[in-house]
Design goal:
Structural class: alpha/beta
Oligomer: single chain
Radius of gyration: 16 Å
Number of strands: 9
Shape: globular
Strand content: 5-15%
CATH architecture: Alpha-Beta Barrel
Order of helices and strands: EEEHEHHEHEHEEE
Largest sheet: 4 strands, mixed
CATH class: Alpha Beta
């Protein structure tokens, strides 16, 4: 059986790492680096329309703050929405208590916007650690897509613990 999985990271506009901060900013295009969300909403509308025309269902890994800012439930209806941090935090740089706070806040936003608890996670910057993965498992996350793999004829999810890893290409 063949399957096709289409995933999208629903981030703030022109997402950039800001040295010394745990949260991401937006690329400075004359407006400073404060997070902006206009392009995120426009892009989501375009993708939603395209996916609808093609009959494609996707998984959107959404930042909590982006979901709150763009009020996107109507464009995400019928698609899966997973956790992608709240402010695109690098989980490998957070203390344990910070990780738990960010994960819970992110999961709460997805549940509030979509009406159901998220089941999947993709780490911002594709960086995660064992502590984060254990926390996700306890919080009900069933699969993760935070690793890259090469495109091949046979690509299978990796079930090496409580969370199933679905690699990204």
């Amino acid at each position: 059986m063949r399957a096709f999985c289409f995933t999208v990271d629903l981030d703030r506009d022109s997402n950039i790492h800001v040295p010394g901060q745990t949260s991401a900013g937006s690329m400075d295009r004359g407006y400073g680096i404060e997070p902006r969300f206009d392009s995120s909403l426009r892009g989501l509308k375009i993708l939603s329309e395209l996916f609808g025309e093609c009959g494609v269902k996707a998984t959107f890994f959404a930042e909590g703050r982006t979901l709150e800012s763009i009020g996107s439930a109507e464009y995400l209806d019928g698609h899966e929405v997973g956790v992608h941090g709240y402010d695109h935090e690098d989980f490998t740089l957070l203390r344990t208590d910070e990780k738990m706070t960010v994960l819970q806040r992110s999961m709460d936003v997805v549940k509030d916007v979509m009406g159901e608890c998220p089941k999947c996670f993709r780490a911002p910057y594709m960086r995660t650690d064992e502590e984060t993965m254990k926390a996700l498992s306890k919080m009900g996350i069933r699969y993760d897509s935070s690793r890259y793999t090469e495109l091949g004829r046979k690509m299978f999810p990796i079930a090496d613990g409580k969370i199933c890893e679905v690699p990204d290409i």
